[in-house]
Amino acid sequence: MRPVQLADIEMAARVLMGVAPAARDAVMRDMIIQAQTADAYRRFHGKPHPRFGSGAVLSCAARQDPVPRPAALGLDALAAYAIVIQTLLADASYQSS
């Protein structure tokens, strides 16, 4: 998976905001698996994965159904951001120091 940037976190959270709270952890884990798969494909083939994109979380999330950017971050939006960050922290092996 490509190194995470702020845009990755925002787009993933916007996808989660459109998903039932009970399903958010699984959806986020799936996005990370897709990003890892896409990055391996990109490194091997020299081009983006046809379904999952470039290997960035942003690329996977943008192919799903993100909600529009909220004007303000309410509790639901903050909960979605928290899931994104907690999931990324749980497996930081992709991130360089």
Explain how this protein is built.
The chain has helices at 6-17, 24-45, 57-62, 75-90. It is an all-alpha fold. α2 (24-45) crosses α4 (75-90). The radius of gyration is 13 Å and the shape is globular. The relative contact order is 0.24. The model has no long low-confidence stretch (mean pLDDT 94). Pfam families: DUF7742 (PF24891). This is DUF7742 domain-containing protein. It comes from Yoonia maricola.
Keywords:
97 residues; mainly alpha; 58% helix; 0% strand; globular
Total discrete domains:
1
**How would you characterize the largest beta sheet?**
none
Q: What is the β-strand count?
A: 0
What is the subunit organization of this protein?
A: single chain
InterPro entries: DUF7742 (IPR056644)
Organism: Yoonia maricola
Protein name: DUF7742 domain-containing protein
Domain DUF7742: 2-88
Describe this structure in a few short sentences.
Residues 2-88 form the DUF7742 domain. By secondary structure, the chain is mostly helical. It has helices at residues 6-17, 24-45, 57-62, 75-90.
